[in-house]
Design goal:
Length: 414
């Protein structure tokens, strides 16, 4: 990309999932995983699924049912997904973010799954991505899982207890010998990872290098550029790292630490966060202000989140948030109130307990011409000799005019 070109906002695109093995030393990375963390990667989220599954919150959340529900929403094999994501069988799940994966996008993730028993990963991959095919050059590699933003997604099976899924350029980086001894993300993870159920670690230096490679700007030019998104400037220029930790044992606690490059930036950030929380408390304080906030956010948030506006649990949670500055670091922490936990559990129960409404699903139809009285149906007749029937009941041996989708009683030509 030339200097005149810009990169998209990447506020929510810097996540890396890492689930360290429950049996290995806390705060360290396994040798196999360490070798996959390329110096160009910028973020990591560490999740311990076994701990979460065994916690009171984890048991209440019906994690296996929630996984199957998510699989059904994406129209993939729920049995395969349930096996692939079973927290009882996974020692570690790692998603490593590459700021420059190639294609028409920045910040895509590579996933590493480490099981605690031998697993037929090839069968799992084929069940979720039936169009995938083995590579002729490497029997461990499955190609053409899907394409995302012009980049091919591939799967690598290094052994019977490990599965790697990533964009092809990212997967190539993960396997490449690391010539540089400098690895900011890996070093940061080793310092910050502890026994928390979830740990998110973000390191800004790889992001800054990626942004400069994309734009050709120096740090001064990048900060002065009016077309570079403020979130990009914040993530690459104003902070050194972000760490988030979640403990779900006993009383759930969330702690965030933001290390800024200068004390003055930390002071500004502390003021910004404190003011935002105060404004949110005011907006939630009366029924009229909550109604105005709902109207403002309607269409931006799902109905379930909008319903939280009127809940005492949300007001209690916001009031419990604490913000403190220590030198260049701003710490934000909150103990999630029991009422908020109960609302989350109830929402999950309602979600996984819902039966899918077939009427809400788009119906695919084939349109064809025929003079055969055996297939006449006035309900789907489009013209004197033209018919539309569900794809599953399409007659064989006829010439289709087109395929179309009926959604909310409207026909969409495709």
């Amino acid at each position: 990309m030339h200097p005149g070109q810009r990169i998209p906002c990447v506020v929510s695109a810097w996540l890396v999932l890492t689930l360290p093995c429950l049996g290995q030393q806390q705060g360290t990375l396994s040798e196999e995983l360490s070798g996959l963390v390329h110096p160009r990667f910028c973020a990591a989220i560490i999740v311990r699924p076994g701990q979460i599954y065994q916690s009171d919150v984890g048991k209440s959340l019906q994690i296996p049912a929630l996984i199957r529900f998510a699989a059904q929403q994406f129209a993939v094999d729920p049995d395969a997904i349930a096996t692939l994501c079973d927290p009882r069988k996974i020692d570690q799940l790692t998603i490593l973010v590459d700021p420059l994966p190639g294609g028409n996008v920045a910040f895509l993730s590579g996933v590493v799954v480490e099981f605690n028993e031998d697993v037929d990963s090839r069968t799992l991959v084929r069940a979720v991505w039936p169009d995938s095919s083995p590579s002729l050059d490497d029997p461990r590699l499955l190609r053409h899982l899907e394409e995302m933003a012009g980049t091919e997604i591939q799967a690598l099976i290094p052994g019977p207890r490990m599965l790697v899924i990533a964009p092809a350029p990212t997967l190539e980086l993960m396997q490449a010998p690391q010539k540089s001894v400098q690895n900011p993300l890996r070093n940061r993870v080793r310092r910050e990872a502890d026994s928390s159920d979830i740990v998110i670690v973000y390191e800004s230096s790889p992001t800054l290098a990626a942004v400069q490679e994309l734009t050709g700007f120096s740090e001064r030019e990048l900060r002065a550029d009016p077309e570079t998104d403020d979130a990009v400037k914040f993530l690459s220029l104003d902070i050194e790292s972000i760490t988030l930790k979640v403990d779900l044992q006993k009383s759930p606690v969330v702690k965030v630490g933001i290390e800024c490059v200068r004390t003055s930036i930390a002071s500004q950030l502390e003021t910004t966060i404190s003011d935002a929380l105060l404004n949110l408390q005011i907006a939630l304080s009366t029924s009229d202000s909550r109604r105005m906030l709902r109207d403002e956010l309607e269409g931006e948030l799902p109905p379930q989140l909008l319903d939280l506006m009127d809940s005492f649990a949300l007001r209690e949670a916001v009031e419990a948030i604490q913000v403190r500055k220590h030198g260049r670091t701003v710490d934000v922490s909150v103990e999630i109130p029991p009422l908020m936990v109960k609302m989350a559990v109830d929402a999950v129960e309602d979600l996984v307990g819902e039966e899918p409404d077939a009427a809400d699903e788009p119906q695919w139809y084939v349109v064809f011409r025929s003079s055969d009285p055996a297939i006449w149906n006035k309900d789907v007749r489009e013209a004197p000799d033209r018919f539309a029937v569900p794809l599953s009941r399409a007659p064989a041996g006829i010439r289709y005019v087109r395929v179309k989708r009926m959604d909310n009683d409207d026909y969409v030509i495709t």
